[in-house]
Design goal:
- The chain contains nine helices and two strands; from the N terminus they run αααααβααβαα.
- The chain is mainly alpha-helical and 226 residues long.
- The chain has two domains: 2-107, no CATH class; 110-212.
- Strands 1-2 form a two-stranded antiparallel ribbon.
- Helix 4 runs parallel beside helix 5.
- The longest helix has 36 residues, at 185-220.
- The two termini are 29 Å apart.
């Protein structure tokens, strides 16, 4: 019985398992791999113990995991079970990150503008103001556009620029230009330049986030079994 006790995870080891359901499975797999790799390999009793621990965890969280529990407790079934769980975890982590990204979009798009971009956008905003002031448009249209332009100009100075103000400014300019204010078309072209610049920054930042997400998933996943 003493030999069997040596094969089991100690209480302090089990205490390392995260309360997060998916993170807890990752922790458990890593614990088992460290312990039984040190013992040699997953053969005989070790294979059975690994499957028992993992199947118990999966059964307890049956509403989360879909990997089928093996009917037999051999080394081959153990390796298959562990790798299948790793693949399922990988998919769940990816979906989790996608969900977080969608949630961020739901709260509104934000972009971290580099100083050089802010400087260029300030210049474009100043040029747009001159065009609007010189345009022969009714006062209510002038005031509507200027209010939105000033709101966007203030947003540029923040560490995280929310693009909602840019969208409202663009809609205001294009609507008034479409209603006959042709002298606003140069301002529309300039605001399109601003949108294109910011879109480029967004693409770069989203690519960096995607790379970071991939790296985070790889770090959180246990390595493939030998």
């Amino acid at each position: 019985m003493g030999a069997m006790d040596n094969l089991l995870l100690a209480d302090d080891e089990l205490g390392q398992v995260s309360e997060d359901v998916v993170g807890g499975l990752i922790d458990l797999i890593q614990l088992l791999e460290r312990k039984y790799t040190d013992l040699g390999s997953w053969q005989g009793e070790t294979s059975a113990i690994v499957i028992e621990y993992l199947s118990g965890y999966v059964s307890h969280h049956s509403g989360v995991f879909r990997t089928e529990i093996p009917d037999e407790y051999g080394a081959r079934q153990c390796s298959w079970f562990v790798e299948s769980l790793k693949n399922e975890v990988k998919g769940k982590l990816a979906r989790e990150q996608i969900g977080m990204a969608l949630a961020r979009k739901g709260r509104g798009d934000n972009v971290n503008l580099p100083p050089t971009y802010k400087e260029q956008i300030r210049d474009l905003v100043s040029r747009i103001k001159l065009i609007i002031d010189d345009a022969a448009i009714p006062p209510d249209r002038h005031d509507d556009i200027m209010a939105k332009l000033n709101a966007f100009a203030a947003e540029i100075e923040k560490n995280q620029t929310n693009l909602e103000k840019l969208g409202k400014l663009w809609l205001s300019l294009t609507r008034h230009a479409g209603e006959g204010a042709k002298n606003l078309e140069p301002a529309v072209r300039l605001i399109e330049r601003v949108r294109k610049m910011i879109g480029g920054v967004q693409d770069e930042q989203e690519a960096a986030e995607a790379a970071a997400i991939t790296q985070d998933i790889r770090k959180r996943l246990p390595p493939p079994s030998a």
